[in-house]
Amino acid sequence: MALWGGRFSEPTDDDMRALQDSIGFDKRMYAQDIAGSIAYARAIAAAGVINPLQAVSIIDGLHKILGEFDDGIFEFKPGDEDIHTAVERRLIELTGPLGGKLHTGRSRNDQVATDFRLWALDAVKEIDELVMGLQVGLVEQAEKHLHTVMPGYTHMQPAQPITMAHWLMSFFWMLSRDRERLSDMRRRTSVSPLGSGALAGTPFAVDRDALATDLGFDSVSENSLDAVSDRDYVAELLFALALTGAHLSRLAEDVIIYSNPLFGYITLNDRYSTGSSLMPQKRNADPMELARGKTGRLIGNLTRILVVLKGLPSTYNKDLQEDKEALFDSVDTIKLLLPVVTAIINTLQARPEKMRAALDEEMLATDMADYLVRKGLPFRQAHHIIGEAVRLSATHSLKLSQIPLGHLKELSELFEDDVADVFNFDESVGRRKAKGGTAPEAVAEQISSAKNWLETHEL
Ligand code: ARG
């Protein structure tokens, strides 16, 4: 008989049970469920619903159940619909009818909301640390490549030379925003719904503030109707993870392209590369393709929760049970992904000579225009003139630096011998030393801001 079976004369249909049971996945919240129950036992004892001795028996029973779960010996029974009913059923087995007092004034609605928030808070902390690990890896790799010059791209077309450190650090800042999002959503997650009852609140004198503090929440929900159905924190965390995934996926895409032999700028460590069962020469960046591919799941899970939430009438509806697998899946996915992506960054082998070889003088066309600008020409005219120079070089299969000065002078008499100085990739990079630029000295400053950021952003 179900815990709620009193008003029914027939047992639940088996197919119906298979549809509605959530124990298969929500059992992973057992520690949070039991922590919530222990705190709740203390709270109803303080409210005079049970006496102190009864509270001790209930709490002892709950500790025993926690031990059974920890040791993997908890026995599930057919009526265990979800983690809440399983724990309560076992508590009554252990303590007799006394165990049946624990649910006084409580509903699975405020209970599940509490458990899942506690679970999400733990997950946020773990993920934050993993993202930090990747940030540290990026900084360490960047420090080795302040002077490694490589092609920079826009539209995936060669654009201007940049330093490898600058490229790596661009991902550091994406991840810094991801971690800010985690710490921001953490605040809204750390709100205790416990004591909201099924929807209308509890008629017992439960000190909700003390209960919240006992569980480590920062604050208490203000409205019981909202509290039992608020899954904004799930949507926010799913969004945060989807966007982190999008950032990892962009990094993955760069790594896939730069490790392709046509580019050859970087080599992935053997431990993170895979071969082909057919083609002996292959060296694939599978983990990065998975980072790209699994981001599809992360985005899918965000969509999933938003669709579940959008049409719900007020307060708890069983649709909300669909929140769990979405979040579990995203959390598991990102936790699987981040250590591998971090290891790939930590062990990345740069091929500076390949980067050099790919630097084309056309990537200095902007610098050539800037040369004319420094001699007083408006940039728009300079842009046009250099465009003609590029066309000239292309039609005569010459590098820009090989166009005879005489021909350049026909385009603008501002060209002089010193135009030869433009054709230096290191100097091009070195000139971009304003804050946020790719010059080694600017990137060194960027790295010190990044280290400072890391020190001031512990969750
Ligand atoms: N397994 C349920 C869930 O995850 C627990 C809450 C059930 N509440 C109820 N009124 N049926 O949402």
Quick structural summary:
This protein has 459 residues and is mainly alpha-helical. It has helices spanning 14-20, 23-26, 30-46, 52-70, 83-95, 108-144, 164-189, 208-215, 224-229, 232-259, 286-310, 323-346, 352-358, 365-374, 379-395, 405-411, 425-431, 440-456; strands spanning 149-154, 157-163, 191-192, 219-220, 266-267, 349-350. The strands form three sheets. The chain has a two-stranded antiparallel sheet with strand order 1-2. A two-stranded parallel ribbon has the order 3-4. Strands 5-6 form a two-stranded antiparallel ribbon.
Descriptive overview:
With 459 residues, the chain is mainly alpha-helical. It has three domains: 10-104, Fumarase/aspartase (N-terminal domain) (Fumarase C, Chain B, domain 1, Orthogonal Bundle); 122-198 and 219-357, Fumarase/aspartase (Central domain) (Fumarase C, Chain A, domain 2); 361-456, Orthogonal Bundle (Ribonucleotide Reductase Protein R1, domain 1), CATH 1.10.40. It is 61% helix and 5% strand. The protein has 18 helices and six strands. The chain has a two-stranded antiparallel ribbon. A two-stranded parallel sheet has the order 3-4. Strand 1 and strand 2 form a beta hairpin. The mean pLDDT is 97. Arginine binds next to helix 6.
